TrEMBL record, chain A:
GO biological process: G protein-coupled receptor signaling pathway
GO molecular function list: G-protein beta-subunit binding
Keywords: Cell membrane, Lipoprotein, Membrane, Methylation, Prenylation, Transducer
Assembly, per entry: G proteins are composed of 3 units; alpha, beta and gamma.
Protein name: Guanine nucleotide-binding protein subunit gamma
UniProtKB/TrEMBL annotation, chain B:
GO biological process annotation, one example: signal transduction
Organism: Stegastes partitus
Protein name: Guanine nucleotide-binding protein G(I)/G(S)/G(T) subunit beta-3-like
Source organism phylogeny: Eukaryota, Metazoa, Chordata, Craniata, Vertebrata
Pfam families linked to this entry: WD40_Gbeta (PF25391)
Ranges for the WD repeats: 22-63, 141-182, 183-224, 269-301
Similarity comment: family membership: Belongs to the WD repeat G protein beta family.
Record keywords: Repeat, Transducer, WD repeat
Length: 72, 301
């Protein structure tokens, strides 16, 4: 039947999908509570080095246009 | 996550000032990418040009004319010597920008669909996203059902994450090409994706108007970023260097700032007159760049 190759393609595709799902289902997972804690710790540890959180003093700001100073 | 973050100090209102507006493109800006030196940046516009900028002075350093104006993605190689771009021409073109005038180095045209995103692994290897993800050598990543719209490399460069129009995000191993994990939850196309700086989580932004953080090791969504007042799709996102702030560009012409731990909106970058199409934070974390369909790039910090 002309539909046979088509259906065997579907079966092959379905097999691959199931295979992939099996691989993904079998990975080792950690608890969300631990995962969340780790993410929070990373943020707090690196917060003081984050210029966008801490603010940048005008003298160190590379993007700020520097205006020349006139001494009167 | 937001429950666990209850004890963390609030970031307060984040107010960043517009420091520079980079003018030079004549049409919509579709993509931008910072150089590893946190000073140069390349932008791509459908005026048919890539512009390399010195963001400290605001000067244009190099202009690369494109064969095809329909550009959707641009990337800076870690060495700073090369940039790559691609789009509706289905080709990823690599240019040497250190030559006296920008030279086309290679054209990678084995794509069957438009190029939505590309990222260099090194000067000699690039990952490209089209309707299938590809590496020019041998490995083809063919797991997404819908067009892949965005990709991000992990900090350790061993894995990358892709977001697609099938509303899924997938984690891939760079070397063997295997899809290791799949994350669902979004209800529409994922347009933007980025790694949390520790490499253990990814943030996605979608046409369903929300962003989500998925933790890789626990294999699930840990927090969502949405607000009933925000009815525009997310086009792009970038994280501050500690990962605490998420800068998400939306179709409502603004870039909203989210507290990644508490899931609250903490600020907004307003100033563009059209959709914010691309956002990027340089490696040193000193600022945010937003690019828009209004043809301007703006630097904030």
């Amino acid at each position: 039947m002309s539909s046979k190759p088509h259906s065997s393609n579907n079966i092959a595709h379905a097999r691959r999908t199931v295979q992939q799902l099996r691989i993904e289902a079998s990975i080792e997972r950690i608890k969300v509570s631990k995962a969340s804690a780790d993410i929070m710790n990373y943020c707090t540890e690196h917060a003081r080095n984050d210029p966008l959180l801490m603010g940048i003093p005008a003298s160190d700001n590379p993007f700020k246009d520097k205006k020349p100073c006139t001494i009167l | 996550m937001s429950g666990a973050a209850g004890g963390v100090a609030s970031v307060g209102r984040v107010q960043l000032k517009l420091r520079k507006t980079l003018k030079g493109h004549l049409a919509k800006i579709y993509a931008m990418h910072w150089s590893a030196d946190s000073r140069q940046m390349v932008s791509a516009s459908q005026d048919g040009k890539l512009l390399v900028w010195d963001c400290f002075t605001g000067n244009k350093l190099v202009a690369v004319p494109l064969k095809s104006a329909w550009v959707m993605s641009v990337a800076f190689a870690p060495s700073g010597n090369l940039v790559a771009s691609g789009g509706l021409d289905n080709i990823c073109t690599v240019y040497n920008i250190k030559a006296a005038s920008p030279k086309t180095l290679r054209e990678l045209d084995a794509h069957t669909g438009y190029l939505s995103c590309c990222r260099f692994l090194s000067d000699s290897e690039i990952i490209t996203a089209s309707d299938k993800l590809k590496r020019p050598q041998t490995i083809m990543f063919t797991n997404h059902i819908g067009d892949c719209m965005s990709l991000a490399l992990s900090p350790d460069m061993n894995t990358f994450i892709s977001g697609a129009c099938d509303s899924l995000a997938k984690l891939w191993d760079v070397r063997d090409g295997a899809c290791k994990q799949t994350f669902s939850g979004h209800t529409s196309d994922i347009n933007a994706i980025a790694f949390f700086p520790s490499g253990n989580a990814v943030i996605t932004g979608s046409d369903d108007c929300s962003c989500k953080m998925y933790d890789l090791r626990s294999d699930q969504e840990v927090i969502g970023y949405q607000d009933t007042s925000l009815n525009a799709g997310v086009t792009s996102l970038a994280l501050s260097s500690s990962g605490r702030l998420i800068f998400a560009g939306y179709d409502d012409f603004n870039c909203h700032i989210w507290d990644s731990l508490k899931g609250e909106k903490v600020g907004v970058l307003s100033g563009h007159d059209n959709r914010v199409s691309c956002t990027g934070v340089p490696d040193d974390g000193m600022g945010v760049c937003t690019g828009s369909w209004d043809s301007f790039l703006k630097l904030w910090n």
